[in-house]
Write a structure and sequence with these properties.
Layout: H1 8-17, E1 26-35, E2 47-56, H2 61-77, E3 84-89, H3 91-95, H4 100-106, H5 109-112, H6 114-123, H7 129-137, H8 143-154, E4 163-165, E5 179-184, E6 193-199, H9 203-208, E7 214-220, H10 221-229
Parallel strand pairs: 3-4
Antiparallel strand pairs: 1-2, 2-7, 3-5, 5-6, 6-7
Helix pairs in contact: 2-8
């Protein structure tokens, strides 16, 4: 028995036990309480409400675009006119040889700064940390991200207003496999996060015994309420 960390792993178990729902994809949203073992602070609690929406069954970039579109439109619908979705691809880190610990360190870049990140990377055993950091900064979008960005722009979304590529966005959870995203309140460096998500193509397969791709996003309802009521 354990307190529920998020709504994604329970979804993975549900789909694995109900594979008949994949026809060919299964889309759903869910609202529920989740728990984190963190020190409470403004906008961050140990118990809070998540609103998840996911598409399961296809690895096509069109499903990533559906989730991204819904996220941006949802933010605008509740009055968050300056919110911007940062996107990246977890494969970039693997291509550059960053391990799981290094990825978590890089994800804190906007909050801790380059000096702290380089120091922590060296302590994590990353050789030539600054060179690796610069390679990441200059890596550019993967072909998948380029395709997603192009199609988002064709759909009317504006780069650097509705969404932006951020090579340092990493997302701390290990189950992300490709596209990752995080909704920020505005363009302020290290600004407030109001939701996150990405593609997790291997998670459901852990329970189902075969690969079942999926992508989704999660809003923090408590934080949204605080922002819209302020």
């Amino acid at each position: 028995m354990a307190l529920r960390y998020d709504l994604t792993v329970p979804l993975a178990r549900f789909v694995a036990n109900n594979l008949n729902l994949l026809n060919p994809t299964f889309c759903r949203y869910q609202i529920g309480q989740v728990f984190r073992g963190e020190n409470p602070q403004k906008g961050r609690r140990r118990e809070f409400t998540q609103f998840d929406f996911d598409s399961v069954g296809s690895d096509d970039a069109s499903e990533d675009i559906r989730v991204i579109s819904a996220t941006i439109k949802g933010a605008r619908a509740i009055g968050l006119k300056d919110a911007i979705l940062q996107i990246n691809d977890r494969n970039i880190f693997g291509n550059l040889g960053f391990n799981t610990e290094a990825i978590r360190i890089i994800d804190k870049f906007e909050k801790t700064g380059k000096t702290k990140v380089l120091k922590d990377l060296e302590m994590a055993g990353i050789k030539k940390a600054e060179q690796k950091f610069n390679e990441l900064r200059d890596a550019g979008e993967t072909d998948r991200l380029k395709d997603i960005i192009s199609k988002l722009q064709s759909a009317g979304f504006k780069y650097n207003t509705d969404f932006v590529y951020n090579p340092f966005l990493a997302r701390g959870l290990d189950y992300y496999t490709s596209t990752i995203m995080e909704l920020k309140l505005d363009k302020t460096p290290g600004g407030l996060s109001i939701g996150g998500g990405g593609r997790y193509d291997n998670l459901i397969g852990m329970f189902a015994g075969k690969k079942i791709p999926a992508v989704g996003f999660s809003f923090g309802i408590d934080r949204l309420i605080e922002l819209t009521n302020s």
